[in-house]
Amino acid sequence: MSPAGAASGLGISVRAKRFAAVGAAPPKLVIKDLQLQVPDSGLVALFGPSGCGKTTLLNLIAGLDREFEGRIDLPADWRIGYVFQEPRLLPWLTVEDNLRLVLPDPDDAPGKIAEWLAAMELVDIGKVYPNRISLGMARRVALARAFIIDPDLLLMDEPFVSLDEPTAQRLRTLLLATLQAHPTTVLFVTHNLREAIMLADRLVLLSGPPSHVQQEIAVDLTAAERADEAAIERFRAEVLSQALPEGPLR
Ligand SMILES: Nc1ncnc2c1ncn2[C@@H]1O[C@H](COP(=O)(O)OP(=O)(O)OP(=O)(O)O)[C@@H](O)[C@H]1O
Ligand SMILES: [Mg+2]
Predict the structure, then answer these.
(1) What's the rounded Cα separation, in Å, for the pair 171 and 177?
(2) Are residue 100 and residue 163 in the same domain, yes or no?
(3) Whether pLDDT at 7 is above 60
(4) From the CA of 157, how far away is ligand 2's center (Å)?
(5) Is there a single domain that holds both residue 71 and residue 96?
(6) Domain count, the chain
(7) Over 80: is that where the pLDDT of 219 sits?
(8) Which of 151, 92, 99, 94 minimizes the C-alpha distance to 120?
(9) Which residues surround the ion ligand 2 when the cut-off is CB under 5 Å?
(10) Distance between CA 108 and CA 105 in Å, rounded?
């Protein structure tokens, strides 16, 4: 995936990310001295209290916000899929056209769109506009839009919230199967520890603001254990006993 000799994986080193004062709100230091390495094909789950800067960090990695001190290193040829915290579909395009828009090669479009509409159980709403679909459906369209480009790096910002639990669980299983078939480097923001244990190789706990890495915990479970609720529950208890006080899991 990365060219020979190039650094592999995603390297994050943010010395400082500030937002300027807006109106009566003072300037704000949101990220300070945050270092994180996500290896090629690794899945890192990011935890942190609300407002600590997780979405801000994903925006820096995606290149949507370039005003910060530090560096983000990733191979130049990587395609980035981003599942935003809100679905952010374009309201003037149908569901299908929202997917078509991100595809570089129009010849690929019909097959890929059909494939991802089916995978996300959206075949009936391809021709519908986003203001006529539910939030859960919009979330699934946003997932399809990120997967459809075969990303090398997938940024996922609480992608499974506001879905009913059986649908969320189906999509987690689909994510694992998709990653098995197409190894991808993933950074996944969640507040759900069970979900993170099922999916991630590593949990990264942020504290703040300003956010920085407080603790990293490896998740060394087999595929069979990840599919076993009791094994996840056991590991969850272990994580909670290891988690430092003042962290996002306490
Ligand atoms: N464009 C902006 N201008 C000014 N301040 C901002 C801007 N975007 C975010 N912030 C502030 O930066 C801080 C971090 O916001 P961010 O959205 O990254 O938090 P988060 O960790 O993703 O929270 P949540 O878990 O609630 O999604 C918050 O205090 C927020 O108000
Ligand atoms: Mg956020």
Answers:
(1) 10
(2) no
(3) no
(4) 7
(5) no
(6) 2
(7) yes
(8) 99
(9) 54-55, 85
(10) 6
Q: What pLDDT, on a 0 to 100 scale, did the predictor assign at position 4?
A: 44
Rg (CA), the chain: 18
Is 132 in a helix, a strand, or coil? helix
22 lines ligand 1 (CB under 6 A): yes
Is the minimum distance from the CB of 25 to ligand 1 under 6 angstroms? no
Which among 22, 56, 65 is the best mutation to test ligand 1's pocket, defined by most ligand atoms within 8 Å of the CB?
Answer: 56
Residue 191 CA: which ligand 1 atom is closest? 25
CA distance 193 to 62: 24
**Global model pTM greater than 0.70:** yes
Give the residue from 51, 56, 48 showing the smallest Cα distance to 216: 48
Specify the CATH number for the domain of residue 23.
3.40.50.300
Give the angle subtended at the CA of 150 by the CAs of 149 and 154, to the nearest 5°.
95
- Do 218 and 202 meet the contact criterion of CB atoms below 8 Å apart? yes
End of a domain among 124, 150, 176? 150
Lowest-confidence pick of 79-83, 154-158, 215-219, 240-244:
240-244
Instruction: Decide if 250 is inside a domain.
Output: no
Domain span including residue 141: 89-150
